[in-house]
Amino acid sequence: MTSQELNELRSEAEENRGPGHEIEPLLYQRWSPRSIGTDMTEEDLEALFEAARWAPSSYNNQSWRFIYATHEDSEFEDFVDLMGDFNTEWAGKAFALVVIASKTTFDHNGEESITHSFDTGAAWQNLALEATRRGLVAHGMQGFDYSKAREKLSIPEEFDVEAMIAIGSKEDEEDVDEDAQVEPNGRKSLDEIRSKGSFDF
Q1: Cα(148)–Cα(32) distance, rounded to whole angstroms?
Q2: Which of 101, 83, 113, 80 shows the shortest CA–CA distance to 156?
Q3: Which among 18, 28, 76, 181 would be 20 to 30 A from 138, CA to CA?
Q4: In this predicted model, what pLDDT tens digit does every residue of 135-172 receive, in sequence order?
Q5: Alpha-carbon distance 47 to 166, whole Å?
Q6: CA dist 83 to 67, 72, 115, Å?
Q7: Contact status, residue 168 vs residue 95, Cβ threshold 8 Å
Q8: CA–CA distance, 109 with 119 (Å, rounded to integer)
């Protein structure tokens, strides 16, 4: 992807979003289009997993696991088969489909990890931001069969199935059905998400 194409991708977010304070632009340039394609490489994908690897976690447990297949793998259809019809229509065109699981116990003592989902969310955010930096799409989903994913992908009981991700190149919005087209959306105000001293919303 050329720098011009990358700037055009990020400008889609900036046209619809304006932070109230000065922050790293990558944070609000990240969004989740459904216009997705296969114009990326396995090396790009590995870089996204590398970004996820450096997320913080309680006791450095690194609870996250990413189970994936690319569109060139025979297992890809197994991942497509996990999704509902709506997500299959657009996410089935991705370069890779990923299921995220998180280990519910600590490696060092086997005790319950209360923050395993929280920590795994940080790893997903790292992956999503690195995708945006590279001009790629990383779209998180809950619209799939969690029980089927556990069974088909042989995910052990000590892991929770957290979410699914479609990863690929950014394509034209016209490449997806009209009801699947999206644009970068806004966010709640700070007053709606933070309260000083006590829970006051």
Answers
A1: 25
A2: 101
A3: 18
A4: 999 999 999 999 999 999 999 999 999 999 999 999 98
A5: 15
A6: 15, 18, 27
A7: yes
A8: 18
The tokens describing 150, both together, are 């556990």
**Per-residue pLDDT reduced to its tens digit, 114-128:** 999 999 999 999 999
CA separation, residue 159 to residues 62, 68, 101, 141, 155 (Å) = 12, 16, 6, 18, 7
Alpha helices by DSSP H, the chain: 3-16, 25-29, 42-53, 76-80, 85-91, 116-133, 146-152
- The secondary element (H helix, E strand) that includes residue 37 is strand 36-37
Give every CB contact of residue 20 below 8 A, 6+ residues apart in sequence.
189, 190
Cα–Cα dist 135/138, whole Å: 10
* pLDDT score of 5 more than 60: no
* Fold of the domain spanning 3-186: NADH Oxidase (3.40.109)
Q: If you count them, how many residues does the chain have?
A: 201
Residue of 8, 28, 10 lying closest to 18 (CA atoms): 28
Phi, psi of 196, deg, nearest 5: -85, 125
